Amino acid sequence: MNNTPDHTPVIRDSDENIQPDVIELRRSKRARTSKEYGAEYVVNTLEEDPSNLKEALSSLDADLWQEAINDEMESLQSNETWNLVKLPPCCKPICCKWVFKKKLKPNGTVDKYKSRLVAKGFRQR
């Protein structure tokens, strides 16, 4: 089988004529229904989560964010997630960033402060 530029599978018959292989897409047979949650349905969102480390450590909740950062670093070290090594001269390091999120209880109050150190893998070359 060969692929044409539009990635449609083709088959050759004995006369070397190219005929596209017809593939029917699978569709879900499940009935689609819209969901109504009612007037009592409430969504609690906070747009107050810091977008970077500087904002987190200069906010009123700096002590709580610092504790979340320390917990994340301890977790990374105890799980041996990474090791510090000397970078070869021909390589570029992959950057990372902190992501901060307030986890809420069902009543909308803050349950805990959570931080994650994530790699910017999209920067790889």
Quick summary:
With 125 residues, the chain is an alpha+beta fold. The chain has a domain at 53-81 and 91-123.
Question: Could you walk me through the main structural features you see in this protein, from its secondary elements to its overall organization?
Answer:
- This protein has 125 residues and is α+β, with helices and mostly antiparallel strands.
- It is 18% helix and 22% strand.
- It is built from two helices and five strands; from the N terminus they run βββααββ.
- The chain has helices at residues 53-57, 62-78; strands spanning 2-3, 9-12, 18-20, 96-104, 110-119.
- A three-stranded antiparallel β-sheet has the order 1-2-3, with no helix packed on it. It has a two-stranded antiparallel ribbon with strand order 4-5.
- A hairpin with a 5-residue loop joins strand 4 (96-104) and strand 5.
- The longest helix has 17 residues, at 62-78.
- The chain is flat, with a radius of gyration of 26 Å.
